[in-house]
Amino acid sequence: MRFALSRITLTMLLCCLTAHARADEPLTFIVTSDSHYEAVEKVERNDRNLVTIERMNQIPSAEWPAKLGGGPIGEPRGVLALGDLIDDGDKVGETEIQWQHFVDQFGLDGTDGKLKYPVFEGFGNHDGPPAPFIKQKRSVQAEVKRRNAVRLEKKLITRVSENGLHYSWDWNGVHFVQTNLYPADRQNSAVRYSLPWHDPQLALTFVKEDLASQVGDSGRPVIIVAHCGFDTNWWVAEDWVNFYRAVEPYNVIAFFHGHTGTGVRQWKPDPASKPLDVVNTGQTEKGFFLVELNETKMRLAYHVKRDATVIDAPEWEWRYPLEKTFTRSPAATAEKEAAR
Hints:
The structure is a single chain. This protein has helices spanning about 1-25, 45-60, 95-105, 140-155, 205-215, 235-245, 330-340, and strands spanning about 25-30, 80, 120, 160, 165-170, 175-180, 220-225, 250-255, 260-265, 275-280, 285-295, 295-305, 315-325. By secondary structure, the protein is α/β, with parallel strands linked by helices. Strands 4-5-6-7-8-10-9 form a 7-stranded mixed sheet, with helices on both faces. It starts with a helix and ends with a helix. InterPro entries: Calcineurin-like_PHP (IPR004843), Metallo-depent_PP-like (IPR029052).
């Protein structure tokens, strides 16, 4: 019995040490968007996407660019795919084929597709309307819901919204929130553009409830992702401000999105507010953003093909580098400064 207890104690100790070691390691992940898988026209895009995915799989053998300090790249925990997964979300004879291309290449958990890491996708404006409005048999939004249930079962994520679309999870003490199309509750009444295709379906409500219950006043870093950013004519400025005010009390260290291009910038609703670091992640066929976080620093850059049309051994380079420091607990830092 004593020997058995010793073995149990040793096993628990090893598990704790392993978990602690992982928490102390830098967190590495990948962000991409706008894969726009095709079925009939422009099908060469599917091959270009696959080349990018193969590069994602190889990225731990590369090194960070010198301008970001160099050094080895860690094993990515997953890939965030930020909408417009396919090009035609409700087109008879094409949607089904396009979705199958996405599934075949990205998979879900890192074992069932070409991609060797779990994927955390959200839908975009090209991915079709809610299932009740679909004219053909395949609903991307219904598939996202189904896949979210699988992610929950596999413990890849921790929470899903009541409607099954939006979700959140934690990596190394960093909280991630996937809001799909954009973080609002409904399309703004001033916009007359393709409702219900552009209905965010209570994403902002999920953000508010999720951050309150999962982050609270802990000061933990938060990353929020969506398809659209602060440059979209149907996620309008009024809604940008509503989102900003909802997340302002939290330690949001970055907002990642796709839809409109590639680059890194800051956005704030007024001169007195603290800016958000905003990363527009570009198209999968061209490249992806690589992100690393340690205890107090984030570094990221766009890993991009010099010529996206090259299929056989394209040359890769780094663009849009960003390095920033952050605190794990703004409240604790403020108290420390006040005590000086």
